[in-house]
Amino acid sequence: MDWDNHECIGRTFVASFSKSMVLECYSDYINNFNTAMDIVRKTCVRKPQFLAFLRDRQSSSSSRLNLYGLMLKPVQRFPQFIMIVQDLLKRTPDNHNDKLPLQLALTELETLAERLNRHKAEDEDSAHLRALIENSNLKLSTHTKDGRVRKLLKQGEMRECEHNVDGLLERVKDSLIVLTNDMLICCSITNRRQYHRGGGGTSKDMFKVRWREGLDVVEVTDGPPQAENEVKRETLHSDFILLQKIAKLVENLQSPHEGLSLPVVDKCIADLEIKIRQAEQMASQPDDSCITVQFPGKLEKVTRTLIFPYSSQKDEWLDVISKAKLANEPSNLDSWFSANSSDSDSLWKPPLFLRCLSAHTSYNEFQVQCAYAFMPVPHVTLLWLSCSASTVLAVVSVYYITDDRVEKVHVMQVESSVQCMEHWNPNNSIHSVWLGMESGCLLEYSSEGTYRKLNEVTMPTMSTVMIMKAYRNNLYVGLLDGTLAMYTRPKGTNDLNYVSSIVVGTGPLSCLSPIDGMLWGCSGNDVVTIDMENFKPESTRCLVTDGEQLVVNLVTRVGSGLWVTFCEECNLNLYHLDSLERLQEINLSRVIRDFTQDVEPHVSSADKSMITSLVSGNWQLLAGTSNGLLLVMPLPKLPGSVPK
Fold first, then answer.
1. Rounded-to-integer distance, Cα 399 and Cα 30, Å
2. How crowded is the C-beta side of 143, counted as CA atoms within 13 Å?
3. Are 376 and 384 within 8 A, CB to CB?
4. What is the pLDDT of residues 88-112, one digit of tens each?
5. Of 93, 155, 247, 301, which alpha carbon lies 20 to 30 A from 564's?
6. Secondary structure of 349-409 as H, E, C letters
């Protein structure tokens, strides 16, 4: 009826796949699929009549599918449903009444498929770990020493190089490396069995544990082991030739000399030969496809080199091991409080805490006011951080951040508090960072080298700069009085030209974001869209807030939705991007109260919490609160879905 009368099918998908029983039924079916097919294969071997029955039914069916193909159909359903809904969305106009239901249906299907995949991966990892224990002398309990469930993170075959105390290569063996959430295990393959068709791999081999170490003591580095004070092979060979000449000269001495004898020189030559062989072995090892593992031995550190078939596999292992070690740090153990203890949510992995820095050490009363981070080159992040204690002085620090270090490279003072920052590189001319000041001006600083001041621009109304957004060759500046100014930089110059200003609301803009060729902003309780080509307001729409007069505080766009917070509130609100219909409201006060009482039961939670920061990225929504908590929620990954 929905399709005949309204051309609407999205609600049918939502109603069918939003029920918890769907996840339970499909999860059991998918997880037991391989076991069921193994039983069918064994039964066909033992009972020819059963095999004849299956062949007869296949030949008489219209699809000609065998039992495996028929049982595979439900497993293939979800990817097919997702592709159907995506195809429908491409052909559905934006103003059609089925647009939003289809987007919600895509969200439901993706969420369900993601949970099914997580359940299946979890069950497969548990089965692989059980098979490893059954087919080896490895003895592992189901829980780690600190009470966590032991989980298999990764396993794979590679070659292991064993070095002696001199660092020389002694032997190379094919090994199985197993990584759990608390240890790294190496097993030798003692008996390679013949695989049967359709069977698994690991469970058919026999293994013997060579070593196992906790992740807290294992050190993993990229590339082969490097000796301390290693010199080039050419230098070692040159020294070897000189020592041989010295040995001949010492041999021809007519009288003895204290400390100078042939055995002493021979000992130096023997030691040098060991270093030369070690350098030759290191040079022969592929640097781009091996890692070095070190862990404490009985007397000294034990070194093992693991050689992978491909460098991409090495990179994957390095990443997984480093994250597993990070997850075992005290700051990440039991650091996340889950508001929902369901099985599906327990499989979701929260972010890992890496490090914290003191924003300022010389100014005790200073507080962080704003910050901006960008990547000038791959794997390097520049973080600009502004701290202030009043409106007349601010300290701006620049941090240079890579994977393994954080360094403060520059500090400067400015004579007004900084309200916002933006990195802008128009026409690929000059990399610079712009500071929006409380005093009503813009300051431009070089983001490379000396970080010197390049420009100072006064706003047309002398109002405080509240927000900035750089888009292509234009810089949009939102002011406290509700004015939005547009600036541009002519090609080949360092000047900033004022283009025009428009009034977008009675209050300051709380967000600016280019979406589908339009500039979106929020002023008060209104969402304003601006035509960037003509720089004119296109529309002004009010957000639904149950009749309350609220002011928008923070906004982030995810897919086809807008996550919005209001001033002095602790609620997360999800609005549809096209219709601005409110789809979801999440009150975080109870979650914060439960967490606070669980961690610090003696501390009163009477103070009202507020959301002070909101950002989305890596398919996660992160919200910071006024009492120092970070809340994280997973988001859909498919474009076009609604991020419920």
1. 48
2. 4
3. no
4. 988 888 888 888 889 888 888 888 8
5. 93
6. CCCCCCCCCCCCCCCCCCEEEEEEEEEEECCEEEEEEEEECCCCCEEEEEEEECCCCEEEE
Residue 421, classed as helix, strand or coil, is: strand
- Extract the tokens encoding 329: 């740090």
CA proximity to 520, closest of 568, 564, 585, 573: 564
Per-residue b or e along 400-431, where b marks 16 or more CB atoms closer than 10 Å to that residue's CB: ebeeeeeeeebeeebebbbbbbbbbebeeeee
Question: What is the domain partition of the chain in residue ranges?
Answer: 2-134, 138-224+285-335, 233-281, 364-542, 552-644
pLDDT in tens, 256-271: 877 778 888 888 888 8
Q: Which class for 446: exposed (0-12), middle (13-18), buried (19 or more C-beta within 10 A)? A: middle
The edge-to-edge listing of strands for the beta sheet with 620-625 is: 611-617, 620-625, 630-634
Give the bridge partners for 474, in sequence order: 471, 488
pLDDT in tens, 49-96: 999 998 998 888 888 888 888 888 887 888 888 899 999 988 888 888
Collapse the DSSP code of 166 into the 3-class scheme (helix H, G, I; strand E, B; otherwise coil) and give the result. Answer: coil
At a CB cut-off of 8 Å and minimum separation 6, what does 273 contact?
240
Contact 498, 488 (CB under 8 A): no
Contacts of residues 25-28 at CB distance under 8 Å and 24 or more positions apart, as own/partner, are 26/74, 26/78, 26/112, 26/116, 27/115, 27/116, 27/119, 27/120
d(CA 90, CA 640): 9
User: Looking at the domain 2-134, which fold is it?
Assistant: Dbl Homology Domain; Chain A (1.20.900)
How far is Cα 122 from Cα 455, in angstroms, rounded to an integer? 56
Distance CA 573, CA 562 (A): 8
* Nearest alpha-carbon partner for 512 in 463, 556, 549, 472: 556
Residue 317 confidence (pLDDT) above 90 = yes
Q: Does domain 138-224+285-335 have CATH number 2.30.29.30?
A: yes
User: Terminal CA-to-CA distance of the chain, rounded, Å?
Assistant: 27
Per-residue pLDDT reduced to its tens digit, 609-620 = 889 899 888 888
- Asked whether 354 and 368 are in contact (CB, 8 A), the reply is no
> CB within 8 A of 492, min separation 6: which ones?
427, 429
User: Domain 364-542: what homologous superfamily?
Assistant: YVTN repeat-like/Quinoprotein amine dehydrogenase (2.130.10.10)
Residues 465-481, mean pLDDT to the nearest whole number: 91
- Residue 644 contacts residue 107 (beta carbons within 8 Å): yes
Report the CATH fold assignment for 552-644. Thrombin, subunit H (2.40.10)
Rounded-to-integer distance, Cα 515 and Cα 528, Å: 12
Predicted structure pTM score: 0.74
* Confidence label for 197 from pLDDT (cuts 50, 70 and 90): very low
